[in-house]
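Same chain as my last thread, 74 residues:
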Amino acid sequence: MTKFATFAAALGLSASSALAGGYVAPVVEVEPVVVDTQPARSNAGLIVPALLLLGVIAAVASDDDDDDDDTPNT
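reply #2:
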C-alpha cells in the first residue's frame, strides 16, 4: 500500500508541475482579403431594352383594329 501511496504522490506532484505557467492566448494569423476591383460583366443593359422593344413590336403586330375588310359594305 505504501508503494501505491508513493506512486500517487509522485504522480500528483508531477502533474501540478506540468501545469505550471500562465494562460497564453492563441495567436490567430489573419490572411489579407483580396478584393476584385473589376465589376462583373453583365449584358442586362442590352437584354432589358431588347425585350421591351420586342414587347412593343408584338403589341403593335397583334392590334386588331384593321379598317381594311375584304367584304364590301352594302
